[in-house]
Design brief:
By secondary structure, this protein is of the alpha/beta class. The protein has 13 helices and eight strands. The protein has an eight-stranded mixed beta sheet with strand order 3-2-1-4-5-6-7-8, sandwiched between helices. α2 (20-32) links the parallel β1 and β2.
Length: 270
């Protein structure tokens, strides 16, 4: 990656917070743009040591004002409840990208004294392996391009037309992996119930979910069509599906997404 190509992304991104998600974004940037310089503010010694071990080129600072002064764009990767204390220490003169769930650009702007350019993004945990799904919202075209370039280093990134859609992205892409992990665990334990050792049942479950998801994404077919291709009259699959439907499986998943959506709307705490 040439210096010219790197500069089209951003000269010096600064990170406030380098935990699991912040660290994953940093690693994704370094994997894509090895020459990029990154400045990090992180209070946790464990997080700092972990980042030093995996990304030795990263520079650290103990001053938020120093980070803000020396960064072109600042990624705020802290929990929503910690956002207020962080924003109150910034001058608000730069470009900012927040990944805090449920906190609007309007609220962020107020805490930055109505200064700076702001974007919101919601990546998910698959950023750790470069397969995140990230929705983002930004009103400024240049910062939108920068945001998209950053999160495309982690997987699929897309811009939303309306900020209120961020709640749906949070509920689906942000929380969705937890639903899938629960499904994988349940499938594996079902295999154990039927006599398989857990390690084998878990591998089968993971690969089955992975293969099914890839087929759904690549075929372009409606999920119900694909489901019907597996379902034979009077067979094992329809027997299992009848149990899932009698327990309200489809509706429960929809309700889970909706519940996470409503919770996201109520997270505006600062």
């Amino acid at each position: 990656m040439s210096t010219a190509e790197t500069s089209r992304l951003v000269q010096m991104p600064g990170f406030i917070g380098a935990g699991k998600m912040g660290g994953a974004i940093i690693q994704g940037l370094l994997n894509t743009y090895p020459e990029i310089k990154i400045l990090v503010y992180e209070k946790s010694s464990d997080a700092r040591e972990n980042l030093k071990k995996n990304s030795p080129a990263v520079e650290f600072t103990d001053s938020l004002s120093d980070l803000e002064k020396n960064s072109d764009v600042i990624l705020v990767c802290v929990k929503p409840q910690d956002l207020n204390s962080v924003l109150s220490q910034l001058s608000g003169q730069k470009q900012y990208i927040s990944i805090a769930a449920g906190v609007s650009t309007e609220t962020i702007r107020k805490n930055l004294k109505n200064k700076g350019l702001i974007a919101r993004a919601m990546p998910n945990i698959a950023a750790q392996i470069g397969q995140s799904v990230t929705g983002f919202y930004c009103e400024d075209p240049k910062l939108s391009e920068t945001t998209k370039n950053i999160f495309e280093c982690l997987g699929f990134a897309f811009k939303l037309d309306k900020e209120e859609q961020m709640h749906a992205v949070t509920a689906l892409a942000g929380s969705g992996p937890a639903y899938i992990f629960s499904l994988i665990q349940a499938l594996a334990e079902g295999g154990v119930l039927c006599g398989l050792p857990f390690e084998l049942a878990l591998k089968i479950s993971c690969l089955t979910v992975k293969g099914s998801a890839s087929l759904a994404a690549e075929s372009g077919s409606h999920p119900s069509v694909l489901r019907n291709t597996v379902t034979s009259p009077g067979g094992t699959t329809i027997e299992g599906l009848s149990v899932l439907e009698s327990g309200g499986f489809h509706g429960l998943v929809m309700k889970a997404v909706r519940s996470a959506f409503e919770k996201s709307k109520n997270l505006e705490i600062i």
